[in-house]
């Protein structure tokens, strides 16, 4: 109170006085311009914002722009990608989540999750940032893409709550016969290695090679029970998280040819910690809840 009285007696005001030092280059008007630009297009880069300010004779470094946006609650974040779902698949997506929402945890722990993925020699590791108001990106800000779109390797892999299973490199074109060979050589050994119970279930997507009559007959003869699966549902398969881990680890080793790429894939897959696998399955119900909340639409998983 004494300081306020002293300020009034000395300056005739209690408002904040002009401070010493260099004044900010980003005026209130420039700040409004920045806010308008990122609201209109959240993918605008700080360099583009710098050019926008330069057009109105405001010269400022792009790092200052990022700091100012941060002070105003706008942060650069990498949006996830989500599949473009057909209406029919949205319905089956939601139906699956509702049907399995209350399944006991040991059901998921005894599921062998499988999938194929392409690992590129010079992978698409470029991340595109957007400006958003919080640490969580809203569903509408996720990039929508059409699934399936060089030096690369195609691999088939599997895992369960207890850890990663076998990884197989796919040479040439995969058809039903090749897929059955992969299952024959890798599924049962993985089930044994991961110590799954006798009631274990095989998860696979609806790729035609997986659901063809010869493959279905092979699965029946080998007494492998499969989990019914909705189409276009990569967000329901936690192995997608492990593919991300694998590609990141492989690219960090900078393979220079396809042979190295193959070997690095095998090496890094075996290094995936069992704890990572366990956490993915422990939180699987949250994934199902997210699908129900989005009414069968894409989620951030």
Descriptive account of the structure:
This is Transposase. One of its GO terms (molecular function) is DNA binding. Helices cover 46% and strands 15% of the residues. With 301 residues, it is α/β, with parallel strands linked by helices. It has two domains: 2-73; 86-127 and 150-293, Nucleotidyltransferase, domain 5, CATH 3.30.420.10. The longest helix has 18 residues, at 176-193. The radius of gyration is 26 Å and the shape is elongated. The model is unreliable at 143-149 (pLDDT under 50).
- CATH topology of the largest domain: the name is Nucleotidyltransferase, domain 5
**Overall tally of structural domains:** 2
- Spans of 5+ residues with little confidence (pLDDT < 50)? 143-149
Choose one word for the global shape: elongated
* Number of helices in the DSSP assignment: 13
Round the mean pLDDT to the nearest integer and report it: 85
Domain Tc1-like transposase DDE: 111-261
InterPro entries: RNaseH_sf (IPR036397), Tc1-like_DDE_dom (IPR038717), Transposase_5 (IPR052338), Transposase_Tc1-like (IPR002492)
Protein name: Transposase
Domain Transposase Tc1-like: 31-102
